[in-house]
């Protein structure tokens, strides 16, 4: 892998600018942006919003921008009371940004400008079918944070709906870092969080069709059944999962000559996207998890097509096999399950009820909400220690709670924890998470002394390991190990001919580098097997 250099960064930057300019040149409509700020309360968020808009104005003359004080008559006309508020094309749509489009939200901003400039929602055919059934107003609020890599998916889903039916759908994107008081009002302690007509319709980012279905029913939808025959795509290798294993398999598969696609139902990068800092991936002394994911994704995109926001629902074995997703059917010679793992829950009273109300599994996403407040991090592994350090650096008063008297995290990380004077409660188990509307206290049990106590806290971050994501594997009859991981033959072949596995779903070390290595091995095995199919001799 090449090292990054200032020259390379400059040339990448120029490439991005060129691509943006050419995308904006083709837009048929002007994009009117109205920013409302308060002269009396000029904030870093107002400055940042202004700067972001001005940089886009330099890229395209399509962007028309006016800034007004909250006392201006237009603010009264459009009922704007909070600074900063950005209205996007208010002549055509009802899209309001309460906060600043910075950090991860920059992606939402670019996509919304392009869709507004196109004057089209770009919703899929499936979503269009459902959206057409909406016949009464929907006032959407999406709570986001600039540090949340998942938020842009949900915000863009909502923008598409607001563009598709502007007469019925209005949207407000609320940045919780800029407006913690609004987050507090809605108990939005985990982002993205989506309300429609003040009803909670989604926790987390959803595939587009699920979002539209939730908007239609005003209830969170978790399964989407396509209404008509899906489109068919013929390929040779379908990789399920867009984490390090899946993306690497895509690169190796395509480079060995196999037509390969990656299908990912959520955010690309898997757990890495949620890791604040990675310090042990060769070539990078220190890199943000999300930045590393972006590099991997752009690399993979040079070789494979990635179908994101699409869930694989079923696999029909055979040669070729059929892979049925929430949007279409792939016909393929092989499938690689690189579905990773999902976070483990504490399984104590109060945990589910207060999820998103102070209980969180993503410190990068939700940490900023607890700045200046008390929070605990539960766990004793690398994740808990890395994330406790991250919270502490953000200004959260964090205490680590661990059930034993020794941490299993790497020595280097433990050293950092001690250096940063992060308090640790040893031999301590959480028996209950208490709070009415949101987390207020924990019931703790010291397993050495047998004592119980209560601990006041606003947040509980849980990082106690992962469970393999084997729902699909189980459904199609892939054999598992006694620990619940996918069983394979050492060369990533499962018990079903043509079905392979790689990465955290196989168990083992669960490092980014090992997942990537397993992805490459699996792709090479698949390539060899497709030339000399072992199942013909079975
Ligand atoms: P992990 O290594 O499995 O550690 C889980 C921790 O949670 C353990 O300390 C465990 O306690 C505790 N735990 C498990 N169930 C619990 C429960 N019900 N209640 C309370 N505590 C519980 O998980 P991880 O830290 O998420 O890491 C997962 C994998 O990713 C590991 O292989 C890790 O090395 C890797 N990773 C690496 C890095 C890095 O290299 N920088 C960063 C993050 C993750 P016990 O110790 O008592 O079992």
Could you estimate the helical fraction of the residues in percent?
Answer: 25-40%
In terms of DSSP E residues, the strand content is 15-25%
CATH fold-level name of the largest domain: Glutaredoxin
What's the mean pLDDT score? Answer: 92
Compute the number of structural domains: 3
How far apart, in Å, are the first and last alpha carbons? Answer: 40 Å
Q: How many DSSP helices?
A: 15
The molecules bound to the chains, other than polymers, are:
NADP nicotinamide-adenine-dinucleotide phosphate
Sheet having the most strands = 8 strands, mixed
Task: Name a few traits of the molecule.
binds NADP nicotinamide-adenine-dinucleotide phosphate; 8-stranded mixed beta sheet; FAD/NAD(P)-binding domain; 538 residues; Glutaredoxin; alpha/beta
């Amino acid at each position: 892998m090449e090292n990054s250099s200032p020259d390379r960064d400059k040339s990448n930057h120029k490439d991005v600018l060129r691509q943006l300019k050419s995308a904006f040149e083709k837009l048929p409509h002007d994009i009117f942006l109205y920013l409302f700020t308060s002269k009396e309360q000029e904030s870093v968020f107002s400055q940042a919003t202004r700067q972001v808009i001005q940089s886009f104005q330099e890229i395209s003359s399509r962007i028309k921008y006016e800034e007004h004080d909250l006392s201006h008559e237009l603010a009264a006309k459009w009922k704007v009371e909070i600074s900063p508020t950005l209205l996007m094309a208010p002549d055509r749509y009802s899209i309001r940004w309460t906060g600043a489009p910075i950090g991860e939200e920059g992606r939402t901003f670019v996509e919304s400008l392009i869709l507004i400039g196109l004057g089209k929602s770009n919703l899929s055919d499936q979503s269009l079918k459902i959206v057409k059934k909406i016949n009464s107003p929907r006032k959407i609020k999406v709570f986001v944070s600039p540090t949340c890599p998942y938020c842009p998916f949900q915000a863009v889903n909502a923008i598409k709906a607001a563009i598709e039916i502007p007469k019925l759908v209005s949207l407000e994107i609320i940045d919780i870092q800029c407006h913690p008081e609004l987050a507090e009002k809605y108990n939005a302690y985990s982002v993205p969080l989506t309300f429609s007509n003040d009803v909670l319709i989604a926790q987390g980012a959803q595939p587009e069709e699920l979002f539209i279905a939730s908007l239609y029913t005003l209830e969170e939808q978790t399964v989407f059944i396509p209404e008509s025959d899906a489109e068919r795509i013929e390929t040779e290798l379908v990789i399920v999962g867009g984490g390090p294993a899946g993306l690497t398999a895509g690169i190796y598969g395509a480079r060995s000559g196999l037509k390969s696609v990656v299908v990912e139902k959520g955010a690309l990068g898997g757990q890495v996207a949620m890791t604040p800092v990675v310090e042990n991936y060769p070539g990078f002394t220190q890199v943000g998890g999300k930045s590393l994911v972006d590099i991997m994704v752009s690399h993979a995109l040079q070789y494979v097509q990635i179908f994101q926001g699409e869930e694989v629902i079923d696999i029909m074995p055979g040669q070729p096999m059929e892979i049925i997703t929430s949007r279409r059917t792939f016909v393929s010679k092989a499938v690689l399950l690189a579905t990773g793992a999902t976070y483990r829950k504490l399984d104590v009273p109060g945990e589910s009820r207060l999820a998103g109300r102070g209980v969180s599994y993503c410190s990068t996403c939700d940490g900023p909400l607890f700045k200046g407040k008390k929070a605990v991090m539960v766990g004793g592994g690398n994740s808990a220690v890395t994330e406790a350090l991250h919270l502490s650096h953000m200004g959260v008063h964090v205490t680590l709670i661990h059930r034993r008297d020794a941490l299993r995290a790497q020595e280097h990380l433990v050293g950092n924890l001690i250096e940063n004077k992060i308090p640790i409660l040893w031999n301590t188990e959480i028996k209950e998470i208490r709070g009415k509307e949101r987390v207020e206290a924990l019931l703790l049990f010291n397993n050495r002394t047998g004592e119980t106590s209560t601990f006041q806290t606003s947040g509980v971050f849980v990082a106690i390991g992962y469970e393999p994501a084997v729902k699909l594997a189980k459904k199609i009859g892939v054999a598992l190990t006694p620990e619940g991981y996918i069983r394979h033959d050492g060369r990533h072949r499962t018990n079903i001919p043509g079905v392979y596995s790689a990465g955290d779903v196989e168990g083992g070390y669960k490092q980014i580098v090992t997942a990537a290595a397993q992805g490459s091995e699996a792709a090479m095995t698949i390539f060899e097997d497709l030339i000399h199919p072992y199942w013909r001799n079975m």
